[in-house]
Design goal:
Elements: E1 2-6, H1 7-17, E2 32-38, E3 41-47, E4 51-58, E5 65-70, H2 71-79, E6 85-90, E7 96-100, E8 105-109, E9 126-131, H3 132-142, E10 157-163, E11 166-172, E12 176-182, E13 191-196, H4 197-206, E14 212-217, E15 221-226, E16 229-234, H5 243-246, E17 255-260, H6 261-272, E18 281-287, E19 291-298, E20 303-309, E21 312-314, E22 318-323, H7 324-332, E23 338-343, E24 350-354, E25 361-367, H8 373-376
Antiparallel strand pairs: 1-6, 2-3, 2-5, 3-4, 4-16, 6-7, 7-8, 9-14, 10-11, 10-13, 11-12, 12-25, 14-15, 15-16, 17-21, 17-23, 18-19, 18-22, 19-20, 23-24, 24-25
Helix pairs in contact: 6-7
Length: 377
């Protein structure tokens, strides 16, 4: 059997799913793409058992069939071919694949397609329709704070929670927490599920802001369908931390600083050069009369820096320390011109909230401080 397709067109589709091909597969078959030809359409699937991603495209063919194709060899071959029609010839008996271009022929040793893992299509799962814009925003805001904990697997993913005609996305690595909430999404049922970080990375590459995303899920699996792409993934088991009791109220965090985001980012990058490399600690000294003074010190090398920044501050005079990299992560993953920090005490979590956001969303970023006396006294 054979089919003809544009080299750049098939490479584009393979690039959308190659992230699911494992670098160290538990079984050799997972090093392959599964090619399935039926009714003039080619479906290509990649899987690591936990995540299965497939994409469909029209090709020029009169035949049906399937074969497992070495993923890395195929994509590297196509990346180095100029744009042109290429012919794939698949041998159903030997599982070999021959690629014929204008100037060459390339033969790959494939494998039996029956050995490729079969996914569960979740036809009876619960349904939720989102947009690419909602999911893109949710991933952009929350991804940097997803955990990487060998023991507490439940924080190694993004919590998706539907309740009261709103949807919440929450991530935490125990030092930071992000809550992104949308009010323009409705669900008839209350649900709570944790999506793995790798699944989110693949999903992010497949999203388009204007395309709908059909979501189907059960207690253990989730499926995203976007035009011709289908992403099927296991969910992370366990109970996500009770984030609602972790986020302090505005009345508790009553010391308020408003500052220009880009100005703060540039200052942190300068001051961070002088911070201790093991702690990345910067000190924020706040007062209603003097504004914000940023300081960093590395006593091991006698390096230090101080900088005065203009801001609006209402509250008690305060010295509080943060890992400046955590502050930069929060600041660079929001697009508001101005951000608001709500603080309580030097040993309690601070909140960062974008000042400019749409009426359909709420964003809260929580960052734990570093106790200053541990390093300056």
């Amino acid at each position: 059997m054979k089919f003809i397709v544009s080299s750049s067109a098939i490479l584009k589709q393979l690039s959308a799913i190659e992230g699911a091909v494992p670098s160290n597969p538990i079984v050799p078959i997972l090093e392959n793409f599964l090619f399935e030809l039926k009714d003039g359409r080619l479906r290509v699937t990649a899987s690591d058992y936990q995540i299965t991603v497939s994409v469909e495209m029209m090709v020029e063919t009169q035949e049906d069939g399937s074969v497992a194709v070495p993923a890395k060899m195929l994509t590297e071959t196509l990346k180095n071919l100029p744009e042109q029609p290429v012919t794939f010839v698949l041998d159903a008996d030997s599982f070999s694949i021959e690629i014929v271009s204008n100037t060459g022929r390339y033969r790959l040793a494939g494998e039996n397609p029956e050995d490729f893992p079969v996914r569960n299509d979740l036809e009876d799962g619960q349904k939720l329709e989102l947009t690419g814009e909602v999911l893109s925003s949710a991933i952009a805001y929350t991804n940097f704070a997803i955990g990487n904990d060998e023991i507490r697997q439940e924080i190694n993913g993004l919590l998706l929670e539907t309740v009261n005609n709103a949807i919440s996305f929450v991530s935490t690595d125990k030092q930071r927490l992000v809550l992104y909430k949308r009010y323009d999404v409705s669900s008839e049922t209350e649900n709570s599920l944790i999506i793995p970080k790798k699944t989110l990375a693949i999903l992010k590459r497949s999203l388009s802001e204007h395309l709908p995303v059909n979501v189907t899920f059960s207690e253990s699996h989730i499926k995203f369908e976007i035009e011709n792409i289908c992403i099927h993934s296991v969910l992370i088991e366990g109970n996500f931390p009770d984030y609602q009791n972790v986020i302090p109220s505005e009345s508790t965090n009553s010391n308020v600083m408003r500052i220009h985001r880009e100005t703060f980012i540039k200052a942190l990058k300068r001051i961070g050069i002088y911070a201790n490399k093991s702690t990345s600690l910067v000190q924020l000294k706040l007062s209603s009369t003097d504004g914000l003074t940023l300081s960093a010190e590395d006593t091991d090398f006698a390096n230090e820096a101080h900088e005065l920044l203009a801001c609006e501050y209402e509250g008690d005079t305060m010295d509080i320390g943060f890992n400046y990299r955590f502050l930069l992560d929060a600041l660079t993953n929001t697009h508001s011109d101005e951000v608001t920090f709500r603080l309580s005490e030097p040993n309690r979590a601070g909140l960062m909230i974008p000042s400019n956001r749409s009426g359909n969303e709420d964003v809260v970023m929580l960052i734990m401080p570093i106790m200053l006396h541990s390093y300056y006294h």
